[in-house]
Amino acid sequence: MLSKLIGGDGGANSSVSAGAAGDVGGGRLSHTYTADSGSSMHTITMQLTSHSSASPTDVPDTTTDSLKVYNASISDPTGTLTGKSILLVKAVQEQVQD
Description:
The protein is an all-beta fold.
């Protein structure tokens, strides 16, 4: 089997060969995103380019999916929150009777 994983973030693509990570029984294939996807999504692509036991009508094949990548390293707010206040204003509507 020979396939490729394209992470959709412009980073390195991963090739998978028989018995290696990403293949059946070969363990998980990892891809590290170095930045979040912002307000959009990453499109990941998996391409199967050859397989010894697959029907020739099934190879090559490609599938895609969308993936939201969040920032796992969110930092504390800049500065201190000491002395900050929040003002809550509540509007009250009175019913006037004649």
